[in-house]
Amino acid sequence: MPAESLFSPVSLGAIECPNRIVMAPLTRARATEQHVPTEMMADYYAMRADCGLIVSEATAVDPLGMGWYRAPGIWTQEMVDAWRRVTDAVHEAGGRMVCQLWHMGRLVLPDYLGGELPIAPSAIAGEGETFAPRPAGDDSHFLPMKPYVVPREMDAADIARALESYAIGAANARRAGFDGVEIHAANGYLIDQFLQSKTNHRTDGYGGDVNGRTRFLAEVIGAVCSEIAPDRVGMRVSPTSERKGMGDENPDALTGAIGSIAQKAGMAYVHLIEPIASGFMEKPDRPVMDKLRAAYSGAVIQNGSFDAQTADEFIAAGQADAVSFGRPYIANPDLVTRFRQSLPLAEADFDYAYVGDEKGYIDYPDYAGS
Fold first, then answer.
1. Which residues form the NADH:flavin oxidoreductase/NADH oxidase N-terminal domain (predicted)?
2. Which residues make Cβ contacts (< 8 Å) with residue 292, sequence separation at least 6?
């Protein structure tokens, strides 16, 4: 059985958590085709409400930043009302939940934008391909795939719109009953595209050295914190990730700059993706956790290939204040209980990870089978 550090309380800013197990954001594509959360999403999250904190699946703040079939948004009143039913269910089950604010930038296909190009800090395409919308009349199980396209470089008006969208998204998350928000600045999406040198070739004040490349992040944090107190605002970062064509010339310096921004803003936590074993993301050759700790004195959530034992060891060693788990939560709604009692974990059916409805989503039982 893991030591008690994993199950001890922790404060993530103003959010008081009864344990240090965080449910990582998991895009599951169970909203409507109009990106409105559904009743089964309320059931799904409420089943997992005994963790220390739930971070919602990535939730788009602007139609321009939405490029995932049936992922949720938070830019309309209908979306706010639907999310309120989700947060009410989580709170009734005794849980805490923050909304992850998301803009995909260059990783949006024109198919989602009426044929228009997506936006990004620089006109550089992402590497690989992604899910495209299901064509009319197509009832096949799997979604079609298409390659990323070269985006349109953002101008001043685009940047201003994006910042306003983050502020509106934060205000809407507050009205929807979330306990806070997490700014998605990881995984190759818009903010990460500004942060990393391989994807930001701008020559204005939003590019160049690390101070220029972190400017957009700092302004997003400012916009969000104008609507929600900073001790209820976290952010997720992946400064060493090279997925989807990402990469930075100096991850150490970038991490230090990110930490300094979080420190100055008084943020609740930083959610660092730094795998301890290669899997969904590669294990970095040079971890940057020490650079983050040197610049930021707040809480750090670690993420990446942890199990209960390694998570407990990292927390006990001061390498994390909490640890988030993503894929284990797909098939194990009672993950906290399984960790506490050293019970075996169920395996997920990944054929239904991103498509379907109740099957592969809310039909995984707890260990007792109830």
1. 5-345
2. 255, 256, 258, 259, 270, 272, 300
